[in-house]
Design goal:
The chain is α+β, with helices and mostly antiparallel strands. It folds into two domains: 181 residues, Alpha-Beta Plaits; 74 residues, no CATH class. Helices cover 53% and strands 9% of the residues. It contains 14 helices and five strands. It has a five-stranded mixed sheet, with helices on both faces. The radius of gyration is 26 Å and the shape is elongated.
Length: 323
Amino acid sequence: MPRQARLDAPGTLHHIMIRGIEGITIFRDDDDRKDFLSRVGNLAEKTKTRILAWSLMDNHVHFLLFSGPEGISSFMRKLLTGYAIRFNRKHQRNGHLFQNRYKSIVCEEDPYLLELVRYIHLNPIRALVVKSMQELDYYPWNGHSIVMSKQTNDWQEREYVLSLFGKEKRKAIRAYRKFIEEGEGQGKRPELIGGGLIRSLGGWSQVLTLRGTGGKTVHDGRVLGGGDFVGEILSEADARLKRQLLNKDREQVINKTIKESCAKGKIRESEVRNGGQRREASKVRGEIAYYLSQEMGIPMAEIARHLGVCTSAIAKAVKKNRV
């Protein structure tokens, strides 16, 4: 089964999970951790990626971030490739370091942002790496200590997170700390690592019907959010995919559409391409024009050039088929 495309757009909230291949250790010492975080900071600044929460574990990493103007792909590729090369050279090993593909889940800010901050920052306690909240407050390999002002860096969105707990900084820190502590006994939360629609429905027994879905449940493991949010994200991703396809090979899309439509309508392709006026040719040409213009977003002038008519003729055909 082919892997699914990334869902992303500038400013999208993502929960990112990175794992060592076959569960191997990706941080053997503190120098490895420092190198990784240094790369994170440099790339976050260059790509304008906003990191809200993070946690380094021995064999995996969690991030909660807002993607920059170019999305997350460039940020993640440079981060993982650069770190892996340095790690292999230092530890005299060969081969892949990370599991084939990092996991990225697009998240709805309300109500998931703060829940994810808490979930990610409590990772060391769940894994028994630290024994108490007091120890977590000072733990250097986790974003919680940054929010608590026990450690510092230049790239974590500390002020943004605290602003969600209040305007006055000291009170906000106390409110944040209380919020994190209240989640200490929650344990693992599988509903926060994808398919949040199920959570929003109140469980697997519920069914959500969205307009335009034909009564089907809208669910995607790449999205954490309610039904409307899932639908919007998938719709936006579909539109981006079409634009990418057109930018990459628009000519191929047009030629394939004309060929398939002519075959279906049992009419010679040359007649449709040369502006033939027979009713059958005009009908097929109108269907092609409507699809390429309205569904694929191709300019009418370009469609007209391939169909042997003027742009106004394409506009009329689109209008007729729209009715």
